[in-house]
């Protein structure tokens, strides 16, 4: 059957009715439209997810947003040396070096910005002075030897400076300065061979770099400054909190009480010596040696109690560092942890008695036991004993390392006393005064 748009095909179905088939090119056009629509939807979703992540990043840490504004502000101010004629005449066409300086030296923290600024100024001054000195020597040697002297000096200094970047001490502190030294010396020496006013060139370049670095330092210090010391101060309690969550999550997961949040936390467990023990504890989660449930139930309560008390100590230490305030709760938390350690040791010590129990005696101690359960061997309980021993070792490291370190920090940094501690000290002083007065009256 034909129409003005082409040919239509119809088929006869089982109920003697007919069905018209659409042309093939219309199906292809519909599929193409669906694909384009899917591409547009996926693109919009990716843009939306990117904007959402960027928004969440700014909300979590507004200082990063302010840092972007500071960089923009510094670039706007330094660009005035290009746009305003009086300022442009003062520094000449080298004003672009001030803009480049702001771009490369502006860091997130004040210390980082100051470090790169000093490296850039010192390297520029040293390279420029050295290039001027070698240029003077080369110019007095005559036009025949001048290019050879400049070329050889460039080769030697560039090679030696590049090699120095492989030295760990130099790379850690002066890697950026070495790069700027090579760049500045190369530009000044090469351009100095063709430019007569070499001193003016070096002076303008150094002055523009000083302008850019001073602007960066002033902006980073006065506009929402971010200090590296404060970042470190916030990072320490944050790591302590993560360590506490990791310990809780590891023990909960071992005894079957974990969730998806515990698994996420266990992927980032790292905080020095205490974290090493927790990292070892996580290896028991995927162990092929399964401990019988009756034996596991015997130590579950003590392990969970020790885990809880240990995390309380870590969280309290994190609060002390975060607020820079001493706490009277830390002593009680440490005592609870010591009691939990002793409880777990007692339960581990009583394991041999449990292992040699008859099935009906084991049922009385640990709960219902299947008829297939016989006397447990010590070999079957070894993974659980090792887990408990590592948990005790973790508590020991918390007390010996973390607690003592925080106490030393509190003494050196002179953390202020909490209100509860001040009240306790005041009450002790008052009681002592009353006792002394009563003693004097008796005398």
UniProtKB/TrEMBL annotation:
<dbReference type="Pfam" id="PF11744">
    <property type="entry name" value="ALMT"/>
</dbReference>
<dbReference type="GO" id="GO:0016020">
    <property type="term" value="C:membrane"/>
</dbReference>
<dbReference type="InterPro" id="IPR020966">
    <property type="entry name" value="ALMT"/>
</dbReference>
<keyword id="KW-1133">Transmembrane helix</keyword>
<feature type="transmembrane region" description="Helical">
    <location>
        <begin position="174"/>
        <end position="194"/>
    </location>
</feature>
<dbReference type="GO" id="GO:0034220">
    <property type="term" value="P:monoatomic ion transmembrane transport"/>
</dbReference>
<protein>
    <recommendedName>
        <fullName>Aluminum-activated malate transporter 10</fullName>
    </recommendedName>
</protein>
<feature type="transmembrane region" description="Helical">
    <location>
        <begin position="122"/>
        <end position="142"/>
    </location>
</feature>
<keyword id="KW-0407">Ion channel</keyword>
<keyword id="KW-0406">Ion transport</keyword>
<keyword id="KW-0813">Transport</keyword>
<comment type="similarity">
    <text>Belongs to the aromatic acid exporter (TC 2.A.85) family.</text>
</comment>
<feature type="transmembrane region" description="Helical">
    <location>
        <begin position="65"/>
        <end position="83"/>
    </location>
</feature>
<feature type="transmembrane region" description="Helical">
    <location>
        <begin position="148"/>
        <end position="167"/>
    </location>
</feature>
<keyword id="KW-0812">Transmembrane</keyword>
<feature type="transmembrane region" description="Helical">
    <location>
        <begin position="206"/>
        <end position="230"/>
    </location>
</feature>
<dbReference type="GO" id="GO:0015743">
    <property type="term" value="P:malate transport"/>
</dbReference>
<keyword id="KW-0472">Membrane</keyword>
<feature type="transmembrane region" description="Helical">
    <location>
        <begin position="95"/>
        <end position="115"/>
    </location>
</feature>
């Amino acid at each position: 059957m034909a129409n003005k748009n082409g040919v239509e095909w119809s088929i006869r179905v089982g109920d003697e009715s007919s069905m018209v088939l659409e042309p093939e090119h219309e199906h292809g056009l519909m599929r193409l439209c669906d694909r384009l629509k899917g591409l547009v939807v996926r693109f919009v979703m990716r843009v939306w997810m990117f904007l959402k992540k960027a928004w969440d990043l700014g909300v979590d840490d507004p200082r990063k947003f302010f840092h972007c504004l500071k960089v923009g502000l510094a670039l706007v101010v330094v660009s005035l040396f290009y746009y305003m004629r009086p300022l442009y005449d003062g520094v000449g066409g080298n004003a672009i070096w001030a803009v480049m300086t702001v771009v490369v030296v502006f860091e997130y923290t004040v210390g980082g910005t100051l470090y790169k600024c000093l490296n850039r100024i010192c390297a520029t001054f040293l390279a420029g002075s050295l290039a001027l000195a070698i240029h003077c020597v080369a110019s007095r040697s005559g036009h025949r030897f001048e290019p050879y002297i400049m070329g050889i000096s460039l080769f030697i200094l560039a090679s030696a400076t590049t090699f120095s970047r492989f030295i760990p001490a130099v790379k850690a502190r002066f890697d950026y300065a070495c790069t700027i030294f090579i760049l500045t010396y190369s530009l000044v020496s090469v351009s100095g061979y063709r430019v007569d006013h070499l001193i003016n060139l070096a002076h303008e370049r150094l002055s523009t770099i000083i302008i850019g670095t001073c602007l960066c330092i002033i902006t980073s210090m006065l506009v929402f400054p971010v200090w590296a010391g404060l970042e470190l101060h916030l990072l320490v309690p944050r790591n302590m909190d993560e360590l506490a969550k990791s310990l809780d999550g590891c023990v909960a997961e071992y005894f079957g009480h974990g969730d998806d949040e515990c698994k996420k936390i266990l992927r980032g467990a790292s905080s020095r010596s205490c974290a090493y023990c927790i990292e070892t504890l996580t290896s028991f989660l995927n162990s092929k040696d399964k401990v019988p449930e009756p034996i596991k139930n015997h130590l579950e309560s003590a392990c969970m109690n020790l885990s809880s008390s240990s995390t309380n100590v870590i969280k309290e230490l994190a609060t002390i560092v975060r607020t820079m305030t001493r706490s009277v709760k830390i002593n009680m938390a440490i005592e609870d942890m010591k009691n939990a350690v002793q409880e777990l040791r007692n339960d581990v010590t009583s394991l041999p008695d449990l292992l040699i129990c008859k099935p009906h005696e084991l049922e009385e101690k640990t709960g219902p036991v299947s008829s297939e359960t016989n006397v447990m061997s010590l070999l079957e309980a070894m993974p659980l004993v090792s887990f408990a021993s590592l948990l005790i070792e973790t508590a020991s490291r918390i007390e010996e390392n973390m607690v003592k370190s925080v106490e030393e920090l509190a003494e050196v940094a002179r953390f202020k006393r909490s209100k509860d501690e001040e009240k306790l000290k005041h009450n002790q002083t008052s009681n002592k005064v009353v006792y002394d007065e009563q003693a004097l009256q008796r005398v």
